[in-house]
Specification:
The chain is built from 2 helices and 8 strands. The protein has helices spanning 9-63, 115-125; strands at 65-75, 79-87, 92-98, 105-108, 130-139, 142-150, 156-162, 168-172. The strands form 2 sheets. The protein has a 4-stranded antiparallel sheet with strand order 1-2-3-4, with helices on one face. The longest helix has 55 residues, at 9-63. The protein is elongated, with a radius of gyration of 28 Å. Keywords: Membrane, Transmembrane, Transmembrane helix. Residues 54-98 form the Cell wall elongation regulator TseB-like domain. The chain crosses the membrane at residues 21-42. This is Peptidase.
Length: 175
């Protein structure tokens, strides 16, 4: 009678070690990708975080801003940082701050369009576009909302509408 030979135990253990090493290597690689991605994300968002922090400090000083609801970064001819929120009297305000920090403009939010109203105004006038975002700033010494919309072909349109009037001030299409 013949005895069947079994595979040596060493081959099975070697295969398991190889699989474990591959899995460990894959886990280390994925962790490295996550850590590096997190570092890049944090570094890339640092300027916006710093700008918001400084804008809130200036708005508290010049407009008695109590609570900031939204922060906007607006760049046309000049760069502006804007906040909407409530002041120490509970009044809804919008604060537009030039990058220089001088000539802060404080607006009564009830006398102008909100972000959603600005988006709705453009959506109604241009139903063919998809609204991407809106930002509050100054253009030709006039407070405006910049509403960005995307065409079906992927090109962007920029609509500047008056904060108080809601009229289109300037349109840039097909970027």
């Amino acid at each position: 009678m013949k005895i069947k030979e079994r595979r040596p135990l060493k081959k099975k253990q070697t295969k398991e070690k190889t699989v474990n090493r591959v899995l460990l290597g894959l886990i280390v690689f994925l962790l490295a990708v996550i850590v590096i991605s997190s570092i890049f994300y944090l570094r890339s968002s640092r300027p916006a975080v710093q700008a918001k922090k400084e804008a809130v400090e200036i708005a508290k000083k010049y407009a008695n801003l109590e609570e900031a609801d939204h922060f906007y970064w607006f760049t046309r001819k000049k760069t502006y940082f804007s906040l909407t929120g409530t002041n120490d009297k509970g009044k809804e305000i919008a604060v537009i701050i030039p990058k220089s920090g001088e000539k802060v403009k404080v607006l009564d939010q009830t006398k102008g369009l909100t972000e959603n109203e600005a988006k709705q105004t453009i959506a109604a006038a241009h139903p063919e576009i998809q609204i991407e975002k809106a930002a509050l700033g100054m253009y030709d010494d006039q407070p405006v909302w910049e509403v960005v919309g995307k065409e079906t072909n992927g090109k962007l349109n920029y609509y500047l509408i008056g904060f108080e009037s809601g009229d289109e001030v300037k349109t840039i299409k097909g970027i």
